[in-house]
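Model: Ready when you are.
Researcher: Fold this.
Model:
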Amino acid sequence: MKSKPTETRSSLASTKADLRELRSNSRATVGEIQAFLRELKGKSPQEMLGVVAESGLFRSLVLSTFLVAGGIIIFTVIPYFMGGDEKPAPASETPTPIEAPVEAPIPAEPATETAPDPLSILGVGEELSAPPNTNPLEDEGDDFLKDLE
């Protein structure tokens, strides 16, 4: 007697059972195809096209096309034209008078303290020397993950 594989086994463990299922499923598929071909046998091409047309595929395609076009119109075109009419509210009704700039007195002597050049603070233009026999891109054996072990 052959025993059926239990459901506790994984599907990869039982290759014979998988092949049996595949064989029975393919027989069922072949039977369905043969029944469909028997149904179409002896019919004219116009009748076969009528069977396909009755399935509603074309009607569904047209309906989905109109729905997508309607969604594009609703969610893009209408907000585009409605959103451009907004005008910013004026800050105040009365204009503020423009005052003449106040001139600062010019000092007689230039200040002795000058601000440092920001580029020199950042080190722009500074040249650094490196040893000619070493490549800075090579690994020197420093393992930054050694503390995680």
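Researcher: Now this one.
Model:
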Amino acid sequence: MTDEAPKYVSKIDRRTALTWIGVVGAATAAAGGGVVLYNHKTAGKPAAKGYGTDPNLLHPAKASWPRILTQDQLQAAAILADFILPASGTAPSASSLGVPDFIDEWVSAPYPDQLKDRPVIVDGLSKLSGDVLKADAAKRTAALAALPGSGFFKRFRALTIGAYYTTEAGFKDIGYTGNVARPSDPGPSAEVKAALDREFRKLGL
């Protein structure tokens, strides 16, 4: 008898997923990798086209490539994403925010970094789907617990966390309050003003 996880239903549209690719790719670039948005060819044949090195943000292009994950792979992605970032307190689970859709978009995109990740993620999800989709809760937990340390898990976890913490819910979970207009600016505290005055006096100002 199995204890099947709820079926995953797509949560985000492709425009949102493409935005996530740009944000997560930028973070990867800062760490030494990155997303280069150009047309890519493999085996001498043109692959799906990218949308250029300087996307028009006022009129975003639509993705010209199909998403490649099967329903079983997408379901496995939802289970693994929630294993990494389950619902906790007021923070929603990764799958409820659409992280599996982002993973699908990432491995489907025709850019160098995504093409490099594709076999790692797709093969890992294919194997995982066989281990967790028809397993009972105990076997599913055991299969997930055996993953940390593998290259597949490390890369999937990095993508999951990167996507999750670009969302408003992710910002809220870590207490990030940027991009929020303040009704007033109280200015520097008395302690800061006193410290500045001391430094100014040292400089004869």
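Researcher: Key takeaway?
Model: The longest helix spans residues 112-132.
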